Amino acid sequence: MSIAIKTENLSKLYRLGIVSSKTISQDFNRFLARVSGKEDPYQKIGAVNDRLSNNGDLFVWALKDINLEINKGDIVGIIGKNGAGKSTLLKILSRVTSPTEGIVRVKGRIASLLEVGTGFHQELTGRENVYLNGSILGMTRNEIKKKFDEIVEFSGVGNYIDTPVKRYSSGMYVRLAFAVAAHLEQEILIVDEVLAVGDAEFQKRCMGKMQEISHDCGRTVLFVSHNMGAISNLCTSCVLLQNGMLKCSGKTQDVIPVYLNSGLQHASVAKFSEEKPDAFFREFRIVAGKDNNSVGEVDVRFPFSLNFEYHITNFVSGMSIAFSVYSGNGTKIFYSSARIEDLLEPDESRCGTHRHSAEIPGMFLAPGEYFVNVSLQIENIQLFDFKESALRFTIVESGTNLHKFKGKDIGVVLTNFKWTACSEEK
């Protein structure tokens, strides 16, 4: 199988806090180093890409020694925590920025969707921007014209196609931009996390389109997402970045557990120090038993609760608290939310620190590993705070007949249906 993308020791060095890192003295020192056959003195400098560290370094390696081979027709997921280097990698592959070190070999034209509004001119209409964006992606006017109707239909912005895009919502931006990138016939499609802006229906259509262009057209797709369910369903292989370095790569089902287990707190309490402008979490814990003790393991037979402590600085009507529970392989099991107004007493102040809990019944989740995402939000409108993989917990089997199914896949939700004999039909 032919290789579509290959990187060798790919690295990107940034200077912190300064727009341009080049000075005359640095250029002169680099020149002297080259003449004398020595290494670039400034490329030796640089801390590991760790946002939690504060070691005073002026330089940081956003990427360091990335070696990849991506085959034609593959759908490859790029995963990792925020700041791991995912977007930097895609920008280098898309030729938005150049590497500090290393080599990139790309076979074919690239269509990339990196940020909302990339390649769009605010004052131009949607129609004009389709042609502009297509031209930026390397397509001729005739190629764009042949695909124009399909692009507009897929995007769902037909009624606004002759409206200046400065009046578009972020969701409309993304729909039109993805439609252009997916329908024009580049050999490689690169999609960053911008699809998170779209609604669930459009995200589903995007996933289907990416599968179609890979399987039917043999095009290569690189997809960045924090949604492990989407990565599992869509991607044939995965690349995990951690602190700017390649942690591992391979089959999706092998890489995702490494990612999920690398950063999760397997504890009963998670405390958060970051304060957001309007609302933010202070603490999240899992409790069980009569005394509501904090636990990391839960007996499958008994109920347990997710306890949330959060602070509201500026209350907005419709604000809700929500959580999602995922299985150990990243599959979403269920989602639940509650409006904060409904949780508070009528005379209780909306602003301030609040504590609420959600109870999960016993004999509901099967034994296994799970993790929880939590958020403060207005559904589908605004996200105030989000904690990915806030905690991990384990459901353990104790004193039930579930041990009979050890080693078998019985799913993640336990059931106790009523079985009866059917009367003979007459």
Task: Tell me the layout of helices and strands.
Elements: E1 3-15, H1 24-35, E2 59-71, E3 75-79, H2 86-93, E4 101-106, E5 110-113, H3 126-136, H4 141-155, H5 170-183, E6 188-191, H6 200-215, E7 220-224, H7 228-234, E8 237-242, E9 245-251, H8 252-263, E10 269-271, E11 279-288, E12 293-294, E13 297-299, E14 304-312, E15 320-327, E16 332-339, H9 340-343, E17 352-360, E18 368-378, E19 382-396
Helix pairs in contact: 3-4, 3-5, 4-5
How would you describe what is shown here?
The protein folds into two domains: 3-10 and 65-262, Rossmann fold (3-Layer(aba) Sandwich), CATH 3.40.50; 269-398, Distorted Sandwich (Coagulation Factor XIII, Chain A, domain 1), CATH 2.70.50. Helices cover 23% and strands 33% of the residues. The chain contains nine helices and 19 strands. The longest helix is centred in the middle third of the chain and has 16 residues, at 200-215. The model has no long low-confidence stretch (mean pLDDT 83).
Can you summarize this structure?
This protein has 426 residues and is an alpha/beta fold. The protein folds into two domains: 206 residues, P-loop containing nucleotide triphosphate hydrolases (Rossmann fold); 130 residues, Distorted Sandwich (Coagulation Factor XIII, Chain A, domain 1), CATH 2.70.50.60. It has nine helices and 19 strands.
